[in-house]
Amino acid sequence: MSVEKSILAKNDIIDLLKSKYNLQGNVEIIKLDRGSSNLFEITVNGKRYILKEFNSNKPISLVEKEIHLIEYLRNRKILVPQYIQLNNGSYYLIFNGKIVILQQFIDGYTIENNTGNYEQMMESATILGKLIRELIGYEGLDEEGIIDRWFSKKSVQIGIQKLEEEKKNIKGDNEYKEQFIADLNDKISIANDLIDKLNFGIIRRLSIMNTHGDYSIQQLIYGKGKPATVIDFETAKKMPIVWEIIRSYSYVDEKAQGGKIDIDNLVQYFKEFSKYVELNEYDLKFAPHIYLMQLIGSTFGYREYNKDYTQKDLLKFALFRTNLCRSLYTNLDRISKSLIESVPHRQVELEEEK
User: What is the DSSP string of 333-352?
Assistant: First the structure.
């Protein structure tokens, strides 16, 4: 559901199509109710497009970054959206202070989290591997401070503070009050154990690479007889690549429903990815730790439901991620050992964790 009300009336859209894109003829417009931006399915003389009206706080720099990256990937035969150029050669316009883009309609379908069968799971790993392989030579992405924000001792400490504060804010009439307290306490305990036992300096020994930044089953559009198309590159950046691998696995595998990691399937996912991009021993040993430290301090879902009891979907997502934390924490050593033993990788001399 869009965050802001659209400023585009039907006549505005028709005028933009004619004056800015030279798209003439019979125009049909359908407002789509998905995503945080305003989306319209446009049909002009039988040809379909998607018009996207970004929210007013969207920086032009992010839109330009995504456009450049997508064009780079299109030239390397990765299936990504195709932006439509305006008459002036640009790929976006400004209408009453908001950025508007037009792209070709992608004919296909999406699937929900944790409904992917084994073949879809492996296809996700293949697509991610090919995508990262092509991004190795891309210039224009940086780390954007993500390691300090997500993968540092300080970030885990800040997470503990957020969890403690959320416990204090649980409403007395929240029917899930006891579960909230138990879940938040578990996360605090796990976070404290990470701080005590993990050498956070190892993060810099992991493969930090250009990547999508939000790759998951939610960013794939499936079509008949061809690989899925990857969408939404605005969060692309450099980061520990194993985070993207293990996170995307956790959202696609039907056996990971409820937040339980299936280690055998996770290993197969990593093995498929490693056909395209070489990983090192640090990547495999600390993959579960990396994902865990990013998840552990999040109050997302709990906070939203505690403010608005209709947010049941966000609560379900929060419970899923807390169970992921438990599954990762319980199986840290087993996951690391299984990945190192089974996934081809470049060997390095491992440091002691403490």
Answer: HHHHHHHHHHS--B---PPP
- Per residue of the chain (354 residues), give pLDDT as tens: 556 899 999 999 999 999 999 999 999 999 988 767 899 999 999 999 999 999 998 899 989 999 999 999 999 999 999 999 999 999 999 999 999 999 999 999 989 999 999 999 999 999 999 999 999 999 989 999 999 999 999 999 999 999 999 999 999 999 999 999 999 999 999 999 999 999 999 998 999 999 999 999 999 999 878 889 999 898 999 999 999 999 999 999 999 999 999 999 999 999 999 999 999 999 999 999 999 999 999 999 999 999 999 999 999 999 999 999 999 999 999 999 999 999 999 987 666 544
Q: What's the CA gap between 236 and 135, in Å, rounded?
A: 10
Pairwise CA distance, residues 194 & 189, whole Å: 9
